[in-house]
Specification:
This protein is an alpha/beta fold and about 425 residues long. It has 17 helices and six strands. It has a six-stranded mixed beta sheet, with helices on both faces. Helix 10 packs antiparallel against helix 11 and helix 12 packs antiparallel against helix 17. The longest helix has about 35 residues. Bound molecules: guanosine-5'-diphosphate (GDP) and magnesium ion (MG).
Length: about 425
Amino acid sequence: MGKLFSKSSKTKAQDISSAFDEFLKNVKNERIIPQKYITMIQSYLKRGDTRRAVYVIRDALKEIEKVPINVAVTGEAGAGKSSFINALRGVRNDEDNAAPTGVIQTTEERVSYKHPVISNVVIWDLPGTGTVTFPAQKYPKEMKFDEYDCFIILSCTRFKKNDAQLAKLIHKMKKNLYFVRTKVDNDLHNQKLCKPNNFNRDHVLQLIQDDCLQHLKKAEVADPRVFLISNLDVSDYDFSELAHTLSRELPAQKRLNFMLSLPSITNKIIEHKMKVLMQKIWLEAIIDFVLGIFSPESINDNDEGMFRDTLNKFRILFSLDDTSLRRMAQNLKVSVEELKLGMKSAHLLTCEKGNYQNSTNTLKYFSVSEHILIPSICITKKVLVQVYVLYLVAEDAKTLLKNEKIFRYYVDSLQA
Ligand code: GDP
Ligand code: MG
């Protein structure tokens, strides 16, 4: 490693420049920094000005931290808006800071719900056009349409006139629109009761999807996007696909925080969260390397604090912190210890502390092909700790999903 540091600054700049190009190729259209910054970074790197290039990366990351993300959720009363907002925020309906469900909205005002962990993500509950007394033409101004990054229209049972009107309004204003058909669990249940002999789950779901698409096309919404969900089981149906589509279609600088705000309810979401976090680790590693903040030579530093902080940060982001685990255990009527079965990060600081010091062992994580490679010149202890803990926590989040499924199965069968 010491040898690499004696490289001429020109070679160092070339190394970083090609590593940055490789990084962009790997992250494709899931980048967390906007094109305007990328162009500047590339141009500085081409000129060999690594310092200016990393100053731009630093500015881009600072912007990401504070950029607001506003998601509007609208639809008629009873469509499942409050339940959906709680699911998006990873909050249970009976928690103190939850949006009240099963309550008919009487106000004509929009209501904001801040994400409990990522505070710049705000979900807005907008009363449907059928709930307000002012004319539909005034709806965009009254509801401050300009402030949202995207709109989600929720609708249950039959497609309604108000849904079509709303979709048309939003589409006309060239805003990102997603149509979500809720309560598909009810539709499936009813169909199964009506036609027990020739019930076909996929066929029923396809019919609902086609019906929504047809109505939206009639409402002159070009290229409509329809997602079928059940707020009672967001790990099933299209909730996860909707979350990915929203993240993909947001401006790049909003992608990291939006993705991190999502509940870790499927393996796909967990992996996606890990990938955006890897991008951040990659970019920070380049900054530290160029500015000489964390050089490989500083490997003997006392790093227990860094290890603990990293672990706590990632556990919160993947809902593996003590408070989240306690809440889930209560909900499933099991002990926290039972919930933690097979999980590694929960015991990391006590039993396995120091494992990460075996950097050769940790390095194998860098060769996982679908993930972003950190250039070897930038692999410092900080990077090793972050990647090691991130992979471990993400694996644990998947284990927790499995455990939750098993325990929920028992809870449900006891209630049946
Ligand atoms: P809002 O008026 O649009 O905010 O709707 P709520 O979220 O308050 O939901 C209205 C009722 O529908 C509540 O009793 C919810 O429990 C129920 N609900 C919401 N979403 C679903 C769903 O996807 N499936 C089923 N079966 N019930 C749901
Ligand atoms: Mg409500």
